[in-house]
Structure formats: C-alpha cells, structure tokens
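Morning!

This is the sequence you dropped in the shared folder:
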Amino acid sequence: MTDNSESYLFIKYKGASNSKNCTVDLSDLGESLVGFDKLIKELFRVSRIRGEFSVQATSYRSGSIVVDLLLEVKTLFEQLPFDNPQDLIDFLSVVDGALCQQAVSFFQDLRNSSKSIYDFLSTHPVELSTLTLFISVLIGNAGRYKENKNINDEEMPVRIAREINKLIQKKHAFKLALRPIIEDKASSISISTNKDFKNPVVINHNNFQEYLGDDEKILEHFINGQFHTLDGEITSLKGTRGDSLTFNYVYKSKTYNLDLYPQEGSSTKNYINYYKEKVVIEAEVIRSSFYKKPKLKLHVIGYKQGKLFGSTNKNSNKVEKKS
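The structure's back. Tokens below.
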C-alpha cells in the first residue's frame, strides 16, 4: 500500500431550470462544496483509515456544472492504515467483497494467528484510492440507515450503519451539501468515481429527504392545501424568478423567509404599499416536502397595526372567506 495516495470524486449539479444552459448560483455552489468537504471528512473518519485526509477542488468543467474533487490521504512512513483487522474487514466489505472474504479467511486461519495487517496487505495490496469508492458507496446507501430498524440488514457492517445513522440524525452531516436541492436551487446532485458519470449516485427531489434527520423538518404544522392566518412582515418583492413576495414569519423564536405568491390576477406591483410593513395574511400552504420551506399562496392581506385586515382593495375592510 502506498504511503501517499490520491483519487478523484466527481460532483455534478443540475440546475432547477429545465433549460439546457441551467445554472446554479455561485454562492449556493460554494456552500454545497463546503458541505461536501465536511461530509467527506466525516465519512473518512467512518472508514477508520489512519492518516491525514484532504479534499481539494481541482477544476470546474466548462459547459456543465461539474466539480472535480481531489481526495488525498497521507500516511506516515511504515504506518499501518488500520488499527486492527476488523476495521480492515469492514472497509473491504464495502469496496471489495472478494478481497474481504480473503481477509476474513486469513485472520480466522489458526496458522495465521500471529500474522498482522501488514502481513495480509503485503500479499493482498489495497490501494488507498479505493477510499473514493468507499465514500461513494456510503453516500449512495446512507438513506437506508436513516431508520434504526434497517441497521442490521446485513448489507453493511453494523458499526458503519450505526455511524451513518448518527451522521444523518444527530450530526445533520448531509444538510449543507444538499442545500441547493433543499432551497430549490438545483434539481439534482450526482456523485461518481467516474469522470463520465457512469452509474452515479443521484440525489434529487425524490430522495433527498432520506439524507436528512427527523428534526430537520420545517414548519411541520403547515400542511399542503391548508389555510393559515399569519402575522409577519413583507421584506421584499421579487420578479426575476417568478412573481413573489418575501414574507418574514417568526415561529417559536425562529425566523423564516417564505415565498408568498400574489392573488390571482395580481403581481408584486400591487403590494408595494405593504413593503416593509407588518401585515396579517390569510394564505394557502403549497409544499411537496416537510424538509423544504413551505410556499404560500396569498388570499387576503391587511396591515397589522392600527389598520384593517382586508383585501388589497383599499376601500374594502371585509375579510374574504375562502372555501
């Protein structure tokens, strides 16, 4: 096994738009890459390989949002990569089933009772570059171990399955990396050890919630299709990415900036008088996942302090009831 080894992991972002030239904001991309750096280092810790680990972005490919990450492991001279045979076996069970069986047989053979990890690796070399495959497999299977009931499914060493469960439920290790999907800034993120993305791990709007902890749900009491009367403030009027207002809403001492869509036949221009004002609204909840911020469809709006709660018509002070 080489003392210094490096390999590549490739990440592809697909923008939220259906356009062939869809883009992802640089700030969102940067946050996600910082998240992947932290996530990969956590998964490296799960591998129990001894050494100094680093992640570096080496290129950004023109024509597509693909980032090449260099994963480098530096081990000290003559340092064994694992502390004990079981850690080696756990690692191999994820990346190389056949070699794993050879390792199990080697260490179970009474004739090899005095043999060390070094003895096995001297005749069965393992490249540290397989770490990228290990990380890719763990990301691809992580969602299976979000629930405790699946930890003993025999598809993954129990120790590793438990650590993945903890990364999701306790450490929220995937949240920052997947923020472009959570915030609807990207439709999918693909991870591959192959530059051409053959058989990639794909995380999208259909499965991203499998990587998020139960306590990462957002405003669970907002059910899709329900109506709510809410106090808040209109903090912006947006028109570049669809006509919407930003509704600043505080719940249990936490502030949420929610997209608020105008009433039918209206645009943000109709709500200029409400900009930077405290308001009361009646709105319908629109959401596809509890792990994304709900959106609101405005039905009624009015000033909160000393002014009547009614429709956008200034001559009306009647609250419209919606069925």
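Headline: Residues 311-323 have pLDDT under 50 and may be disordered.

More detail when I'm at my desk.
O.
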